[in-house]
Amino acid sequence: MCRAARTDLSDEDRLSLGKSLFTDFLSSDNVSEAVSAAQELVVPGFGVILVDTGIYRAYENPNIAEQAKIASLLVELVAHGAISANDLVAAVGQQAKTLDDTMLDVPSAPKIIGEVMGGAIAKKLTAMDVLLDQVQGIEGAEARRGLVVGALTQIRTLNGENDMIEMVRSSNVDMAAICQKDDEIESYLPDTAEFLSESGLECLL
User: Fold this and answer.
1) Which CATH class is domain 11-204?
2) What pLDDT, in 10s, does the model give residues 76-91?
């Protein structure tokens, strides 16, 4: 059952309950309860904030398994209609713009938001081509590569390698261009072919 959004909450209380949603989920693993809680919280304009809240919760959590759980939950909230796909994409897009800096403090940041996007693409909640938009503002190849590999690995995990390959090849995503490095300042990074092979994505070469 879809619950109506609460209108009796202050902005501070709404945000506090949003943070609690992710804490409670990590304790219970109950997606239905998290969806119901999100439905009560999401009023116009809060969807992006709730996604941001979840992403920051994942950034702050050193546990890789719990990072992945939060990424998956964000996708489930969209799949169940608690958050719109547009809000998810907008929030990830904002995170991507600062990813070069964020990963200095949170090395797993590209992987986290990549898993969010990959889950959404795998469930056909958004298109593979959206990845092009997400990486436009990312200057460093390391951050770009991390996001893309996080997304593609998640798609392969959920849908299988053949589906992942077909999604890439039927889209406008140019893996070579996305993963390209600046040889002058990023000479320490492997070239694209070597990188994809090391990442287990040599099937895309």
Assistant:
1) mainly alpha
2) 999 999 999 999 999 9
